[in-house]
Amino acid sequence: MSVHHFNADADPEEIRRRLDTDGCAIIDDLANPALLDALADQVAPYVDGSATGRDDYDGRHTRRTGALIARCPAARPLVADPLVVDVVGRFLDRASTFQLHLTQLITIEPGETAQKPHRDQMAFDNFDFPVDYHVQCNTMWALTDFTAENGATHLFPGSSGVDDETGLALEEARAEMRRGSVLLYDGKVLHGGGANTTATVRQGVNITYAVGWVRQEENQYLACPPEVARELDDDLLRIMGYRQGAFALGYVGDQTDPLAALRGRADKVLTVGQFAETSTNYREFASDLPAD
To answer: What strands, in cross-sheet order, belong to the sheet with 191-192?
Structure first.
């Protein structure tokens, strides 16, 4: 079995539907090669300074390099890629908002063994989310070609809604893709990094998104210091979490909007009535309140 591939001009709703059924999909050739060249140059010194994993799950021949927004300006367009953000917003549409969850370059070196299949949502204290509620949507951008031999991600399409035993009995697929392509996969699908039996590294940019009311895997407010964040555009900052995660979540001090606080302003966060205008989750509750 193979992961379904889409062209870069594909309908985001079609990609979303594929995520609903398979839990994974690939968009071919989405990233500009020049952007990837710049990212590879910018991240290289940090990769050299990253330690390999501490156990077989982390990967004893795998390096994980984070804080990409602060360290690598070329990573920012990937985080805010319009097609990806559109698909993520559709896929996580049961939540009021979504946010950046993680930025991490994963370098699988020669000699690495296959990672144990797992579901990424286990990070949330192994909470048993409802089958039909997705808390995160992940991407893996190919900074090098992904092949079966160099560690292309292995997945079990269709495993998102079943138990581990049933999921692992499904046909396995490999996310083989050209440099510049991107794998999207949900937080429930069983997957893992592959073994690298070649003499070269496999590098993928793991950028993940989660609903606005959970804690981020990578703390974006510390990974990207305020002095760097203030130089970024508002749209990217909102994706990073500088907005209300839901009603009454994420404000600063005296109910100040987090983006306003970063910019030195005192704008208030939205009231429940105002928030209900942008999110159906609060519409019924707000309808019982007097007008502002």
So the answer is: 173-174, 154-155, 191-192
Report the distance separating Cα 151 and Cα 156, nearest Å: 15
Query: What is the structure's pLDDT at 194?
Result: 97
Query: What pLDDT was estimated at residue 278?
Result: 85
Kindly state the tokens that stand for 166: 């049933």
In which element (H, E) is residue 213 found? Answer: none
From the DSSP assignment, how many helices (H) and strands (E) are in the chain?
12, 10
* Whether domain 5-223 has CATH 2.60.120.620: yes
Q: Where are the domains of the chain?
A: 5-223, 246-292
CA distance 277 to 285: 12
Residue with token string 């079609």: 14
Distance of alpha carbon 31 from the chain centroid: 16
171 CB-contact burial (10 Å; exposed 0-12 / middle 13-18 / buried 19+)? exposed
Q: What are the two backbone dihedrals, phi and then psi, of residue 287, each rounded to the nearest 5 degrees? A: -65, -20
Distance CA 225, CA 218 (A): 13
**Measured between alpha carbons, how far is residue 170 from residues 92, 133, 164, 167 in Å?**
25, 22, 10, 5
Which residue is it, tokens 């993928």? 204
> What's the pLDDT at 12?
98
Supply the pLDDT for residue 285. Answer: 83
Name the DSSP letter for residue 57.
T
Q: Global pTM?
A: 0.96
Positive or negative, the Cα torsion across 227, 84, 190, 142? negative
Predicted pLDDT at 288: 77
